[in-house]
Amino acid sequence: MNRDVELSTGVRLRVVEQGRPNGLPVVLLHGWPDSAQSYERVLPLLPPEWRVAAVDQRGHGQSDQPERGYAIDDFAADVPALLDALAMPRAVLVGHSMGSFVARRAAERSPGRISSLVLIGTALRARNTVLLDIEATVDALQDPVALSFVREFQESTVARPVPADFMTRVIEASAGVPARIWQAVLAGLLAYEPGPPPTCPTLVLGGTSDGLFSAEEQRAAAAAIPGARLELVDGIGHCLQWEDPERFVALLADFVQTLGDTDRQIDLPITR
Question: The domain at 2-259 falls in which architecture?
Fold first, then answer.
């Protein structure tokens, strides 16, 4: 089911929901400049007893595109507001790339709302040579954003082939993001600094062939979170959920299984 959700932060987000209404709440946050479509290949594979919400974050997909508010803190403020709107006292929070920094910040600021974290294609900081190298190119983008640039960017994120029709949809959706949002989100990513490490159970997922955040950066991100579990898949690039959705779901489900079933939606008070 697709629906629009109005948040107390003043933005309207498009949410794709599936699963059992009182099942384990799992919220999926995409990367820059993607959308909930980033999880298209895994949604049919997720356990039907989970209550899953894949979100178009502000500025992306079919959600609102405000003039400002694209720092990681702005995205993170939307998370507890979204949980309120969905009547989820707390949830397993899954974030890919940009979404991983959003997820981590949300866990820092609203620890009572996040039962566990899954960070895909992440790093301790986003400010690395890869993103700095494309900063000038992104800053020069104009509307409509050139499809050739979007294609080159998105295809560079994978190390293993993905279905051509899926990649075409990804590219078309990203090309629909205005240049100002490409620029504002990148600026927010480059400015991001981590706060205190999350205290909830955390899984760091990624690939050894990630061209955006190296295996070393991913290991450093996991090492900075006490007790975090790290799973790097050989030959996978920046998008495990695109490149090997079956492996992604298996690792996610195994992690969630270790947490037990204590975070079903029912009988949980809202705590902040």
Answer: 3-Layer(aba) Sandwich (3.40)
